[in-house]
Amino acid sequence: MKSKIVTVLLVSAILLSACAGKKFSAEPYKEMRFATLPASSVVFLSDRGMLAASYLDGTIRSLDINTGKAVLKMPAGNPVEALSYTGNNGILISADRAGFVKLWEIKTGQLIKSIKLSDTAAFSCAANPDGTLFAAASGGKAAIYVTKNTIKIKELNTAANMPYRQVNFSGDKKRFLAAAGDTINIFNISKSTGLKKFFIPESIDIKNELSIKNNHAINSAVFSGDSSLIAAAGDGGVLNVYRAEDGYKVWSDPSFSGALRALAFSPGSKYLAAGDNSGRLVFYSSKTGEKLAELQVPSGIYGTAFSPSGKLFAASTSTGVVKIWETPKDAKKIVIDFSGLKTILLSLLAAAVILAVIFIRLRRK
Q: What is the CATH number of domain 76-170+185-213?
């Protein structure tokens, strides 16, 4: 009998320990610097091999993570504010301070198309998940284009004193957001029908579904990969996370001292990373707002990105350095995160329950 009890205790402890995930950690992996001016944005081009970074010296570089070397240098001609990558067709999109949106062939570094969106800076660009559409924000307008022919199929306008600063598509391709001032406008996207589709096959219908007041000017706003959440942050040093379907504020963190402009959800939507101008970088549980890890980078953080698998994380900084970390391998999985005393107590509790069941059954016999 005693041996059975001991066996049950050991098995219970082992099972619960197996369920307990390792605590989140971001381990330094690589650091690359190819410019003295700030690296304004960073995107992954593949899971472990390549990424691209833009710089305020007017260049874009594709970088080999494994060798730490620059592969291609693309002369944008103007300080670049943002990048987006359409993996399905190998096109890199850039938005610059002269109001240009440019499409680049990532394999060769050749310029495919240059679009003048406005006479003021283009602060943001984004591609939808399958790469068929892309959007950009500049001054008082945000525009959506068809990627294959760069035809503009929609233009949104806002007040002159509230320029659009951010655009983003949801992972399910059903929503699009454009942030201006302290407001996030969320639009429903659907394919056009009838005569509109007949004359313009690529056209879409876009309807303002919801507006969220953030109460602070917005520098960055992004959908989570599963399209359920929107994270927003700006000059006020406050990070807010909203439910995408109704704008309900799920959680908030007002603890940042510097302006926030770098936000990124992990591919599985489990984690959210936020970086500010003081170099503070925080990783959260995206659903609850629990702080999982905090790092202090020596320079301001301008851009952040997770790799497609979530195994790597990159940040572009104000000194031109692109820093890369290894992150947990569960970015697309959900694990139970126990540690220390909590794990022991839960193990003992489970063992006690099992023992009670065994004892009752033995008494009945």
A: 2.130.10.10
* pLDDT bracket for residue 337 (50, 70, 90): very low
Long-range contacts of 224-227 (CB under 8 A, 24+ apart): 224/171, 224/265, 224/269, 224/272, 224/286, 225/171, 225/265, 225/266, 225/267, 225/268, 225/269, 226/171, 226/268, 226/269, 227/170, 227/171, 227/172, 227/174, 227/175
State the pLDDT confidence band at 361, using cuts at 50, 70 and 90. Answer: low
19 has a pLDDT exceeding 80? no
DSSP class of 22: P
d(CA 184, CA 179): 4
Question: Whole-prediction pTM value?
Answer: 0.83
Stated as kind and residue range, the H or E segment containing 345 is helix 340-364
pLDDT tens for 122-154 read 999 999 999 999 999 998 899 999 999 999 988
Strand order from edge to edge, sheet including 249-253: 218-223, 229-234, 239-243, 249-253
Q: What's CA 69's distance to the chain center, in Å? A: 25
Instruction: List the beta strands (DSSP E) in 59-163.
Output: 59-64, 69-75, 80-86, 91-96, 100-105, 110-116, 122-127, 133-138, 141-146, 152-157
Dihedral (Cα; 162, 115, 119, 39), 10-degree rounding? 70
In the three-class reduction of DSSP (H, G, I as helix; E, B as strand; rest coil), residue 128 is classed as coil
The CATH class of the 21-58+217-333 domain is mainly beta
21 DSSP assignment: P
Instruction: Kindly list the domain boundaries of the chain, sorted by start residue.
Output: 1-20+338-365, 21-58+217-333, 76-170+185-213
What Cα–Cα distance (Å) separates residue 164 from each residue in 44, 61, 143, 153, 362? 25, 26, 10, 18, 71
Q: Are 19 and 336 in contact (CB under 8 A)?
A: yes
Residue 2, judged by CB atoms within 10 A of its CB (0-12, 13-18, 19+), counts as exposed
